């Protein structure tokens, strides 16, 4: 079953299935009406992660839950710690908040152990809400890399953008992740279209 | 005098100087307080074009004025006619309106002949309002191409984004305009960063 099938038929359970090194993604029907928070069982692992949350199953470790969320009220200290972990340069918190507020989509990946939750992955996208989206700041905590979580995170981002009917999904890939994105269906310079960056002279 | 000088010193007049094939751009100080519409003289050619409007001088033809504007309440029929003129495929008006409403920057270029005005150029940018902007839909009416108006339009777009302190300005260039953007200071695949587009499988 392809991601497209799932989005079209909307019959998949609210789970994402995981395997070592390869994730067979089973996305929830993202347009299914979501229960109001008051009706969510107290032991619902997705409670507090927002209406688009999905759980990745099985988790990597025992007692662990891995949850994808589109909530954008992320603690910026936690986000900074995640970006620090991959060696990104620090950015002013005020500007990061502004960027999140003005992103079309903000996706976070959480590890939940009992009542403790930890931000272990992130991505966001700018968009005109109609034709184009551009994905930025894709990151997975190095301790959680190599297990396919980056792929699941990106498939979730793509599913959300498809759900919003954005036809043109783009990104700018560092050289060492070009193959990663290629395996996800991203095409390099299609029809000779080139990514360009402006530098002040 | 470079564009950067002008933006830094803010001493240039509210005019853009034009020459055949090469435009020496003299941008207005975009952060200069703008007079309220009620105080604009009735014969002000920039009246009605919004607070960021600049005139390109000299114009190409007699009795002609060329004006750049950031107003986003563009008549969508006019915009469609412009896009038709360069052979772009038609897009649903409702989605175009949505895209304009959700663009960070919308720039239009107008030819004014007496009381008649005509849309002859366009560009827009999406952004997170903090770190990144991506420029889309850059177009000049073919009858007005080859006179440097594309360059002036793009310099105005860049100036607006610099004014908003967006450090990372990007775009995806079709093969035949890569050199055009290169001359404007855009760099292809800097440090091996590649533009990628997602295609549904």
Automatic annotation (TrEMBL), chains A, B:
GO cellular component, one term: cytoplasm
Gene3D superfamilies assigned to the protein according to its UniProt record, in alphabetical order: 3.40.630.30
SUPFAM superfamilies associated with the record: Acyl-CoA N-acyltransferases (Nat)
CDD domains, per the entry: NAT_SF (cd04301)
Pfam families: Acetyltransf_1 (PF00583)
Ranges of residues in domain N-acetyltransferase: 66-201
Source species, domain of life: Bacteria
Signal sequence interval, chain numbering: none
Keywords, sorted A to Z: Acyltransferase, Transferase
One Gene Ontology MF term: N-acetyltransferase activity
Protein name, entry field: N-acetyltransferase domain-containing protein
Organism of this sequence: Synechococcus elongatus (strain ATCC 33912 / PCC 7942 / FACHB-805) (Anacystis nidulans R2)
């Amino acid at each position: 079953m392809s991601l497209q099938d799932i989005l079209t038929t909307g019959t998949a359970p609210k789970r994402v299935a995981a395997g070592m090194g390869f994730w067979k993604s089973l996305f929830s029907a993202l347009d299914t009406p979501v229960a109001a928070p008051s009706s969510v069982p107290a032991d619902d692992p997705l409670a507090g992660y927002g209406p688009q949350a999905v759980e990745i199953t099985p988790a990597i470790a025992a007692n662990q839950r891995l949850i994808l969320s589109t909530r954008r009220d992320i603690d910026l200290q936690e986000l900074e710690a995640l970006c620090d972990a991959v060696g990104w340069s620090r950015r002013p918190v005020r500007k990061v908040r502004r960027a999140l507020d003005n992103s079309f989509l903000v996706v976070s990946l959480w590890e939940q152990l009992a009542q403790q939750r930890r931000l272990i992955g992130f991505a966001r996208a700018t968009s005109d809400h109609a034709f184009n989206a551009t994905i930025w700041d894709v990151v997975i905590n190095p301790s959680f890399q190599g297990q396919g979580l980056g792929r699941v995170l990106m498939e979730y981002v793509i599913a959300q953008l498809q759900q919003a009917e954005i036809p043109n999904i783009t990104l700018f890939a560092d050289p060492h992740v070009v193959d990663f994105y290629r395996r996800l269906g991203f095409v390099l310079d299609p029809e000779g279209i080139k990514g360009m960056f402006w530098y002040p002279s």
